[in-house]
Automatic annotation (TrEMBL):
<keyword id="KW-0547">Nucleotide-binding</keyword>
<protein>
    <submittedName>
        <fullName>Helix-turn-helix domain-containing protein</fullName>
    </submittedName>
</protein>
<dbReference type="InterPro" id="IPR009057">
    <property type="entry name" value="Homeodomain-like_sf"/>
</dbReference>
<dbReference type="InterPro" id="IPR002078">
    <property type="entry name" value="Sigma_54_int"/>
</dbReference>
<dbReference type="Pfam" id="PF25601">
    <property type="entry name" value="AAA_lid_14"/>
</dbReference>
<dbReference type="GO" id="GO:0005524">
    <property type="term" value="F:ATP binding"/>
</dbReference>
<keyword id="KW-0067">ATP-binding</keyword>
<dbReference type="InterPro" id="IPR002197">
    <property type="entry name" value="HTH_Fis"/>
</dbReference>
<dbReference type="GO" id="GO:0043565">
    <property type="term" value="F:sequence-specific DNA binding"/>
</dbReference>
<dbReference type="InterPro" id="IPR058031">
    <property type="entry name" value="AAA_lid_NorR"/>
</dbReference>
<dbReference type="GO" id="GO:0006355">
    <property type="term" value="P:regulation of DNA-templated transcription"/>
</dbReference>
<keyword id="KW-0804">Transcription</keyword>
<feature type="domain" description="Sigma-54 factor interaction">
    <location>
        <begin position="1"/>
        <end position="26"/>
    </location>
</feature>
<dbReference type="Pfam" id="PF02954">
    <property type="entry name" value="HTH_8"/>
</dbReference>
<keyword id="KW-0805">Transcription regulation</keyword>
Amino acid sequence: MLQIARTYHWPGNIREFNNFLERLYIFYAEEEPTNEQILELITLGILSEKETKPQESIENQEREEILKALKSQHYHVTNAAKSLGISRATLYRKIKEYHIEY
C-alpha cells in the first residue's frame, strides 16, 4: 500500500494526497484495502477533482462516520474520538464544523 502511495505522482500535491487519505479512511476504516482498491481510490480522486463540488461527498461521508462513532459510543466524545483515530479536540472541531448536535 505504501509503495503505491509513494510511487504515484500526486499532481495536486499535499491537498490531493490528503483527500486520498481521507477516502482511504472512510472506505476502509475497519479493513486493509487491496492494491486494486487503493488504485480505485486514486482514480476516484482524479475523477472527483474534475467535479464542481469534490469535497461535498467526502464531507458528507466524514459527517456520517462521526455520527456513527458518536452513536456507537453513546455520545462519549473521548471514546468516539479514539474509535475514529483522531484527537478529542479534532472531533470537537469537526462536530462544530458539521453542526452536529449531541
